[in-house]
Amino acid sequence: MNLKRISAGVLSAALCLSLCACGGSGSTPAETNSGEETTPATTAPVATTPVPEETEPAAPSATPVEVGGSITTDNFVMSFDSLELLPEYSYSTSEYSSTSLYVEEGYQLLVVKGTFENVGTTVISDSCFGFTATVNDEYVVDGYDVRLNFERDKNFEIDPYTEQPYVLYINIPDKLAEMFETASFTIGFKDDMSIPSTSYGSDGSVTVDIDQQYVFTSGLTNAG
After folding, report:
1. 159-187 pLDDT, tens digit each
2. In this structure, are residues 42 and 72 in contact, taking their beta carbons and an 8 Å threshold?
3. Domain containing 189: what range?
4. Looking at the 3D structure of the chain, how many domains does it have?
5. Cβ contacts of 193 within 8 Å, gap of 6 or more
6. Is 57 within the bounds of a domain?
7. Does any domain span residue 146?
8. pLDDT digits (tens, 9 = 90+) for 107-128
């Protein structure tokens, strides 16, 4: 009887050990490497629209004017009668007074003369114009160094419905005066005769906002 119990116990123990061995043999299958490398997915580049660079508006083309010609607009008529090289120049502003143009020592005056008629209803100031002068195609004068005077007491402006002689002039060195050949005066202005605005670029350039531009070119008319 005892022998049967012992045999049954041994058999039961052996069965448990067998079941444990089977349970412990389970394992996660090893990953296999096919030898092929996978490339990560790439995103196609998004097309961008180029942004155009900001550019300054081009200046209007200059209309040429010669001696005997004029600029005629709805606001004024400006004639060009002569170009003279003078050591000095003065004009009467009234019966009892006169004005002399400024000339620096060692310089001479290069003077455009003509008449200016204001045909509009408002005062026209010299500030309504932008001027540049070039002598012998290389010596450039601009800004406030090119001056416009109406030959009257209020020499920086002209009243509506009036006509006055004017002088447009610069100072040039004596040595340049000795070599003088030709000069060009560029005159720019707005159609409504408002004061033109000036903008300055990062590269040092200067742009004046104008609608009309004329260039008067001549040699001396008082030669000899």
Report:
1. 999 999 999 999 999 999 999 999 999 99
2. no
3. 63-218
4. 1
5. 75, 76, 120, 122, 124, 128
6. no
7. yes
8. 999 999 999 999 999 999 999 9
